[in-house]
Amino acid sequence: MNWTKAERYRSLRDVSALEMEVLRTKTAASPWRFGYHIQPPTGLLNDPNGFAYYDGEYHLFYQWFPLGPVHGLKHWYHVSSPDLVHWTDRGVALVPETKEDSHGAYSGSGFVVDDTLHVMYTGNHRTDDWTRHASQIIGVLRDGVIERRNVAIPDIPAGYTEHFRDPKVWEEDGAYYAIVGAQRTDETGCVVLYRSTDLNEWTFLGEVKTELERFGYMWECPDEFELNGRHVLIFSPQGIEPEGHRYHNIYQSGYVTGTLDLETLVFTHESFEELDFGFDFYAPQTTEHDGRRILVGWMGLPEIEYPTDRYGWAHALTLPRELSLEDGVLKQRPVLEMKQLRTNQFADESGTHIEMISPKRYELKLSTFGEDFELELLKTEEESLVIRYEKDTRELTIDRTNAGEPFATEFGTTRTKVIDVTSLHLFVDSSSVECFVNDGDAVATLRVFPSDDEKRIRFVGAEASLVGWKYE
User: What is the pLDDT of residue 431?
Assistant: First the structure.
């Protein structure tokens, strides 16, 4: 379907209850709806937004176009959870309806001030000739709805284009800082920093100086925080060319670690590392609570058609991951609370050849001694997702060539990570797989769209053990 501008920029306010009910029915008919991931009720989900712990719960919003699987007028949808596992739908929290966000409430972050959840997000406005203008807006959550407080940063500083968005706010030494993704006028990507003492007046401090001077044409969704005495800068650069086994998705997400000097804005850092070596991961955002730094990403990518499109919906969010910085490596582990979803144990076997019928949704742990192996998931007569490890080359390859309905094949159907492998921790939902390598050393996130046939798990290799739990 070719969507017109008028169709893409309809507000939820202009949609009848009957039209939404028809959309919900169409979406519900999809065979690939998730069992335990955050997914949109209809339409398109993209970036996680406003992730914060407030009033005894984790609050998480996401970019939402309600009317179909395309990027149109972005609203914010709201979910909350006491435990990062059981999420309650809170409905739409932000409908774009001011001049500043007339063409979309774009991404932003959440932070608590005076016992109130605040957000800062990018308002996207288009003029009659379709010229973009971005401004950064602060809102507060009241009775489940984000009320606008003030336009914090109304204009773009000199030297940057209107691709200026996705503010992440934090408080430090009595001041508020906002890091914003930007594009220089020479069409290279970077991040800039603002400071405020009252949330009303924001001072442009300048560009964060990194060693990545010409690294893509736009940096989206920046996130800056401290972990184990080091600064971490996460961002999603667009326009990076493939390099060996790296950077094969349409857009990338990764991080640098080091030291950010808030006076000079110099970030002294190590090399840029990808956060996820899978096919479908972008625009992550973190929050901190009780000494834990938790990350959630968009399980999808822009500008790609997914098989769910024909059912009127697209995408989901990843499982929450707890971050730790160990020996300079940003480790990501599934939050321990996921164990709550385990029902009956369906596998506890060891050997060199293991095969069994698998549930539709499950958690699986593979432990090996670092030798060659091949693990097949979602296996039927015609299909399987193959995870293969070759000790000699230290290559772990995920192959979804025959893992169901194909899509995005122009970006390749395999992903490879060079790493010593001793264990895999896998979470399989109706149309996704998240694979944690070793104890959080690496992660691969991918969407798959298998048939409805009965599926099996098959392992062949040196002596190993498989333990699995069914998820309802």
Answer: 98
